[in-house]
Amino acid sequence: MNYKNVSFIGTSHISRQSVDEVRHFIEAHRPDIVAIELDRKRLHVLMHKGPRKISFRAIGKIGLKGFLFSILGAWAEKKLGDIVGIAPGSEMKTAVKLAIKNSIKIALIDQDIEITLKRLSSELTWKEKMRFVADIIKAPFSREKIEFDLSKVPGKEIIKKLMAKLKSRYPNIYKVLVEERNVAIARNLNHIMEKEKDKKILAIMGAGHVDDVISILKKGDDGISYSYTYRT
Asked: In terms of residue numbers, what domain contains 131?
């Protein structure tokens, strides 16, 4: 999918297909800039070996609910990654390594993770929190399922169903993790597009973000400050 000087790849963070698509695109098209759905902190964690750890000291910055949600989210993502045999975020890691190897600029376009988790602590109700835990426990026994291959990127119809389910069951989680981050990602990306109009940009983000990010870009809404970082 393309918009102006940007090519988009919508990924699944635990999909071998996504890793292959990212590698093929970068090697075949050699973009000038690779923009990825990460911030500095998450990039550092992703590129350094060892288990992902969150210090209890982080509670003071992100709040208790944001802290607990980050632990549960990381655990759930790792479990799914174990099922398909690929580490979460492998497609992002592949993009970074290939960009460094080919001297391609890297732009970090996601919102700072501490801001996101702090917003979760502020907006997330304990009712949603308990519902999240209960749903994880009940998931293996639930009759209501949306089936798709975890090793591949879900199709648009499945993504719409998953997003609608998330928004209905966890409205505040959806607001913070999807809607607010879509705005931040779109506006950071828009700044790079305007600054680098003659450059080919590859934007890599979760498949559930792509359509909304492009929609925001088309609206031309730039009423937020930008925070992107180039790396070489």
From this structure: 2-231
| Cα–Cα distance for residue pair 102/223, rounded to 1 Å | 34
Count the Cβ atoms, other than its own, within 10 Å of residue 41. Answer: 13
Domain count, the chain: 1
Looking at residue 138, its amino acid is K
Q: Which of 125, 114, 228, 108 is nearest to 175 (CA)?
A: 125
Residue 113 C-beta-side C-alpha neighbours within 13 Å: 15
Cα–Cα distances (Å) from 23 to 124, 158, 163, 193, 214, in that order, read 37, 24, 27, 22, 22
Would strands 105-108 and 33-36 be described as parallel, antiparallel, or unpaired? Answer: parallel
| 3-state class (DSSP) for residue 104 | coil
- pLDDT for position 227: 45
Residue 154 Ramachandran class (φ > 0 left, ψ -120 to 50 alpha, else beta): beta
Question: Can you read off the two tokens belonging to residue 94?
Answer: 């592949």
118-127: pLDDT as tens digits:
888 888 888 8
Write the pLDDT tens digit of every residue in 163-184.
888 888 889 988 998 999 999 9
